[in-house]
Amino acid sequence: MRLATVALAALAVLASAGTASAQYGSAGQGGRTGQQQGGQQQAQPEEDARPPRIAPLRSRPNAGPCPFVKVLYDAARYVELDGGRTAASAVGYTGEIQGVTAGCRYFNDDPIEVQMNILFDLGRGPMAQGDQRTYRYWIAVTERNEAVLAKEYFDLPVNFDGSSTASVTEEQSVVIPRASITTSGGNFEVLVGFEVTPEMAEFNRSGSRFRINAGTAAATPPAQ
């Protein structure tokens, strides 16, 4: 698992919306107990000598919903094809973003902090050269269904160690400034994807796909 942090703090966010439903977590319990000194009886009952117990508090609710976090379909997979041939024997390095889990927090007029875990499955086909490959991916913040506000690129170095596949989880943090206290996280989307060529994007859009270990094992002949 690798840990990286990105702060997309230069956004000129002009969207506005009302406060939405609150989200709650849990908090720990706290309390102290009184003590007697010198073995002498206290003048007041022991219960009165102790500080009052404080009821456990729930964590503070967010000021609104979290941004939508998703993988862009056109960039969800990375498939190198030698010579542009759509064949298992032409596959080099491959990758697929298997999923993203995310949560957020923001209070009052604070910016929105989004925490994400991104799961990558990577592969090495017959045309791959070597055990190491550095993939590149990006995270973008957009106004929902509108323009991109900010975009950052990241390197993902992978060592296959002689294997044909590898899995990596990336932890990322994105900070989104808000124009005002009424700006809700529901106004934003956080998108994730590989840096792909136009040919790779078209391959993804077509619905074509290879397994991440495509071409690494010969097919088993049918039983006679």
Automatic annotation (TrEMBL):
<feature type="signal peptide">
    <location>
        <begin position="1"/>
        <end position="22"/>
    </location>
</feature>
<keyword id="KW-0732">Signal</keyword>
<protein>
    <recommendedName>
        <fullName>Tat pathway signal sequence domain protein</fullName>
    </recommendedName>
</protein>
<feature type="compositionally biased region" description="Gly residues">
    <location>
        <begin position="27"/>
        <end position="37"/>
    </location>
</feature>
<feature type="region of interest" description="Disordered">
    <location>
        <begin position="24"/>
        <end position="61"/>
    </location>
</feature>
